[in-house]
Structures are given as structure tokens and as C-alpha cells.
Amino acid sequence: MKNGSVKNRGIVYLVLVLLTIGCGLKANPVPQASEVAKTKYDPQLILTAEEKAVVLAWQLQNINGRISHFNVEKSELGSRGNVCKDCPRSFEKIGQVPVMNSGNGKQKFGFTDSQVDKGKTYSYRLGICDASGVCSESQIVEIDFK
After folding, report:
1. Which of 57, 89, 106, 115 has its CA 20 to 30 A from that of 79?
2. How far is it, in rounded angstroms, from Cα 118 to Cα 143?
3. In angstroms, what CA-CA distances link 17 with 14, 46, 70, 141?
4. Residue 96 contacts residue 56 (beta carbons within 8 Å)
5. CA 132, 137, 141, 145 torsion: positive or negative?
6. How far is residue 27 CA from its own chain's centroid?
């Protein structure tokens, strides 16, 4: 009897060791990358100074309807002559432009920022977003608002 219980105990320990080796945290879960994040979009953002506003214009091809909207973000660099180009920038979202999925052709988009002051330098960028809210950032474009 003693020999049988030692054998059973050994099997139980072996099973427990195998279970603990086979289970556990392998790595932190990583969400799948969005198609928008995988694709490098270059919207060619163009800024124009109007009388009391900065007008943003761009065009982009919405391949297979992957893009759902653009987040328009702005950073104020300071007044002319007092701009720190190498300082870290903080952008704030100032608007959102929806995308109407109308095929795979190039579409034109625009946004007007009327919250600007003369004599200041502003930077703008776009967040190119999919339906789940995953965004990739465009290039940063600056303008001296005179």
C-alpha cells in the first residue's frame, strides 16, 4: 500500500509541475495594429493665412474606406522672434473632420481655425483615424500668422 501511495503522489506532483510550466503569463496582450496605423498617409497639409483665421486644406485618398475622420490639432509656438523651435510641443485637438466614404479617389478636406492672434506662430497636424479611434499623425506644418 505504501508503495502505491508514493507512486500516486509522484504522479500528482508531476501533473502539477507540468500544469505550472504550461500555464502563466507569456507576454502582455498587444492589440492588433489598425490598418490606418500600418499605412503611411501623406495628406500634404497646406496652410493659408486669411484676415482673421488660418485655413487648412488637404487631400487624401481613402483606400477601401479605412479612414473615418481627421482630428485637427494645433500648437502655439509663441510670438514672432520668440519661438523655441526645439522645445517640446504640446498639441491640442481643435476640431474633427468626418470622412464621407465615396470610393477610392482623392478627396479634398478643409478646416478653418479662427482662434488665432496676429504675430504668433502656430503648428498644425492631423490625426488620421479609423472607426475604432486609432490614429496616425501627419507631418507638422507651421505658419506665422501676420
Report:
1. 57
2. 11
3. 5, 63, 52, 59
4. no
5. positive
6. 24
C-alpha grid cell, residue 78: 509663441
Does pTM surpass 0.90?
A: no
Q: How far apart are CA 125 and CA 141, in angstroms?
A: 6
Angle CA 43–44–47, to nearest 5: 120
The string of DSSP codes covering 90-144 is --EEEEEEE-----SSEEEEEEEE----TTEEEEEEEEEE-TTS-EEE---EEEE
CB 58 within 8 A of CB 46: yes
Q: Which residue has the cell 485655413?
A: 55
Rounded to whole angstroms, how far apart are CA atoms 133 and 119?
Answer: 35
**CB neighbourhood size of 72 (10 A):** 21
63 and 114 in contact (C-beta within 8 Å)? no
Q: Which domains does the chain have, with CATH numbers?
A: 35-145 (2.60.40.10)
Phi/psi-derived region of residue 101, left when phi > 0, alpha when psi is between -120 and 50, beta in every other case: beta
pLDDT of 1-18, one tens digit each?
456 677 788 888 888 777
